[in-house]
Amino acid sequence: MSKILILYHSSHGSVANMAHEFADTIVSRGGEAVVRVFEKRQDHDVVITKQDLISCDGLAFGTPTRFGMMAAQAKAFWETTSDLWLKGALIDKPACVFSSSSSMHGGNEATLLNLSLPLLHHGMMLLGIPYDVPELLATEMGGTPYGATHVAGSQNNASLTQTEIKICRAAASRLLRVAEKLT
Description:
This protein starts with a strand and ends with a helix. The chain has a single domain (3-182), classed as Flavodoxin domain (Rossmann fold). The protein has helices at residues 14-28, 50-55, 72-78, 82-87, 108-121, 134-138, 162-182, and strands at 3-8, 32-37, 58-64, 94-101, 125-126, 148-151. Helix 5 (108-121) links the parallel strand 4 (94-101) and strand 5. With 183 residues, it is of the alpha/beta class. The radius of gyration is 15 Å and the shape is globular.
């Protein structure tokens, strides 16, 4: 059974909802989902440790978009991982990224690319969403070849659409499938 780490920050709940879609999909397909956050916001939250990264077989990493960049909480954590980088602790682990913005042109794709940078520096294998996922071609809200996305609306209260959910599930399934082949 492959252990997939779902690591995220969520300000208004959209990224948390996406993370839970990832986790539910991993579990439903026979994997182990380990959900972690960068800072404790609710009683059930578990804060990430470096050991969580070392012991996972794959990583799904998401934050809301902050002007096309990852949330500061995530950046602060990744800046503490130089020791893992020096040891090559994450080399060849598969990973994917996901994000949410308040508008269609709110920076999701730039954020996904920004989320990818520390993963690539650590030698992880970045997985996108291939075009054999039919929802990717049909989406009118979130979803890109770089990763799963959501458009939360100007009040940050839009629920995940069925298309966005299917894209999250496709990304999670692919991550688990690749992790299983590598483990």
